[in-house]
Amino acid sequence: NAISSNVSLPTAIDIEAYGDLLAINNHQRKADLHFKLHTWELGFLASTSEGAIAIPDSIIAQGDASYSIDSLHTKVQLNTPHGSAALDAGYNPSTQSYSVTATLAELDIRELWPQGTVGNATLQASITGKGFNLEDSITTADARLHIDSLQWGEKTIANATIHSTKSSSTMACLIFPSP
Prior knowledge:
Elements: E1 2-9, E2 13-25, E3 28-39, H1 43-46, E4 60-68, E5 71-80, E6 83-92, E7 97-108, E8 118-130, E9 140-152, E10 155-167, E11 170-177
Antiparallel strand pairs: 1-2, 2-3, 3-4, 4-5, 5-6, 6-7, 7-8, 8-9, 9-10, 10-11
């Protein structure tokens, strides 16, 4: 079954979503969804919120999500005049294996969260693994965070990496400046 939707408020916002859903039986389920959001001038929203979260003017967000009986995958990209963010995530419920990668490229977090203390950020984060119970010996995980540059209040963190692993019954975490 095909689905499609479009919502538009001229000169302010345009949202488009479409995709296909298929559910033949319990062994054959599938969905593919796509969306695109484009904002222009949203100044009128500033008077309706108390400043906790901001939706900047001129953003474009787009993404895809797919689902089948043995996998779930999503990919989202956000572009703003103040930087960009990307997310790519996958999960297999049969094996409980997962993979997530997130990237911020010169994204000024204050434009989205004005009351926060985090400013401009360029970083990459990823985690791959299998299982979710840290006490279980079959659970494995490899998590990495590399910070190229991150403004935190008046300070800047640069060229730092955090790497954490869990294999069998061992957990380790390393924090070190990058070369």
